[in-house]
Write a sequence for this structure.
């Protein structure tokens, strides 16, 4: 079953985060990920809001986790570590 990679992000260093985003885009695509939402308009109806929300669809939970653990994504992530606070979850889609 396909899975959604959902990230909620508050960017604190735009230049470094841009380096992350550029590299992460390639890593995500290499693992079959396709962006459904990426920092577009959002309306927070409940809970804590974040300025940047990202949703990508992967072929499976395993593919999304493999992406996260891949050397290419981990290299990208090194640019985000001190450039943003992030929450990331992978959720299996319903059939």
């Amino acid at each position: 079953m396909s899975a959604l990679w959902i990230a909620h992000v508050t960017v604190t260093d735009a230049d470094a985060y841009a380096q992350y985003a550029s590299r992460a885009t390639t890593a995500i695509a290499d693992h079959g990920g396709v962006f459904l939402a990426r920092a577009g308009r959002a309306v927070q109806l409940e809970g804590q809001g974040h300025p940047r929300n990202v949703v990508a669809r992967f072929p499976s939970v395993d593919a999304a986790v493999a992406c996260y653990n891949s050397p290419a994504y981990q290299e990208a992530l090194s640019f985000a570590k001190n450039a943003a606070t992030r929450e990331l979850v992978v959720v299996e889609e319903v059939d």
Observations:
- Helices lie at 14-30, 61-69, 71-80.
- The domain at 3-92 is CATH 3.30.70.100 (Alpha-Beta Plaits).
